[in-house]
Amino acid sequence: MLMLQAQGDDRRLWRALRRTWLPTMVPRRLLLLRGPRRAPRVALTFDDGPDWLTEQYLDMLDKLGLRASFFLIGRQAEAQPDLVRAYLRHGHEVFGHGYSHRRFPTLTEAELQDELARTDALLPPMPLRLVRPPRGALDARTLFRCAHFGYTLALWSLDSLDHRLTDADALLARLRHRPPEGGEILLLHEGQTWTLSALPGIAALLRAQGLVAVPLSELFDHG
Ligand SMILES: [Zn+2]
To answer: How many angstroms does the Cα of residue 219 sit away from the middle of ligand 1?
Structure first.
């Protein structure tokens, strides 16, 4: 769920950003919401790992032939460096999701810089310099501060709602009702047995839509 903390001018800015940039947002800009619509590709993104289910997620994604992007909480990555390496071994991409999962708009500039840098130091370099703000919390100041520190804020175009729908069937029903389209970024979470159980169904849904799951950096390849 996207939570905007600001009111008034920031809300208008947010609406303008979505309207202007939603169709073809590219790296090195401020905000990433989706890839090109004409691409038969979709990016599965998983927030809040690594954790006790990470290895099972990786095995399941292997079995299904899916590659994804993971947004990791810094302090959890620090505690489990083996799992950070495991994502890469399995062909996925990893990016930061804050060190402590505190909402970026509540942080001072120095605190935000510290959250970004501490997490970055734990992760290997990636083709894109992305960060996903914890809980999607965002305001104009956060947007420009992250850009100043060299990051694109990576959000999503389709929320699976797996943080609310705690049942694999309900989650799949939601995605059948609103299936991913070409170029979309799908928000999912780690550490949830129902999300893990839904992955085969999600893979089938993507196949039916003629879509291939790719890591975020490949969402933009080949136009
Ligand atoms: Zn999160």
So the answer is: 22
